[in-house]
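Technical note accompanying the year-one report. For the benefit of new consortium partners, we illustrate the data format agreed upon in the data management plan: each record pairs a sequence with a structure-token string. No post-processing was applied to the example shown here.
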Amino acid sequence: MVRLAGEAASLDEGDAGLKRLLRSQHVVVEPGHDALAAIQQRGRIRVAIEPAFIGLSFRTTPGEPLRGLDADYARAFGQWLGVEVEFVEQSWEQCLSALDFGLRVGEPPADLMWSALPALPAFEGVAFSRPYSVSPLILARRCGETHIRSLADLQGRVLGCGNDPLVLETLAQLGVRWSANQRQAGGRIELANLVVFSDQSRIHDALAEGVVDAFVVERPIYHWAATSRQSPWYGKIEVLPEHVGEQLWCYSVGVAACPENATLLAKVDAFIMQFQGSKRCREIEQAWQGESFSGTVPALPDDVTGAAALAVRSF
């Protein structure tokens, strides 16, 4: 095919225009782009976070800064990195999408998701840091209902939980049965009903108001709500001391699984390794789940993309 000089110039101009358009929508077009270098140059990191996750990232008064375990960890990372933290507040599901694109025209994507994210292969297109916090599954009841001491006391009662497949799997392994799995072998505790909540804003009221008789959830999500005098549920709900099962729930930081994020994710891992066991880390854990499990943080699962695997993609 023969291309005239004028046609070649027109195509070059078109390519330049396309690149300008892509840059205006925050799409990376330069080979070798490094997200960490860009963050350090602008002095700000954008962190996707759920703003209504009690105990993890929430407000008690409109307009106040976010508080909670995840909010504190993200700020500690920003301070360690020497940049300002800008929280990109979205529902938990939208936080995952925010890693790839802005949710409004002209908005850049988030650099990180720091919001109770488990490292699971089901989250395609996401690369994960090593876990920064772990917590047990707990059982909560209304204050004074001492007849509920463990899962065994829920025979014929209504149990609530979050919309987490791992929680449902754990309950089933412990012999809890409800309408969806009542024919599964090994049942020991027959519930009247299991109510699964996707709306995080309802999971404390549901117990306090008697919609459910007990609630199974990760410890940080109920600890502050049950123990802080600032909590609207103080004196209404309480966390039982015995853990539900032996599994610990792990939270990781997520980035879009793109080569330009390889050094950023490695930097998050470096922070986590240095921060765990520090005085500030223990303070955060103590404040938001009553004790620290940082000495039991496991390695990242082999079936998900971590910093090492993402670094390979960058070459």
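Partners are asked to follow this layout when depositing records. The CA atoms of residues 161 and 167 lie 8 Å apart.
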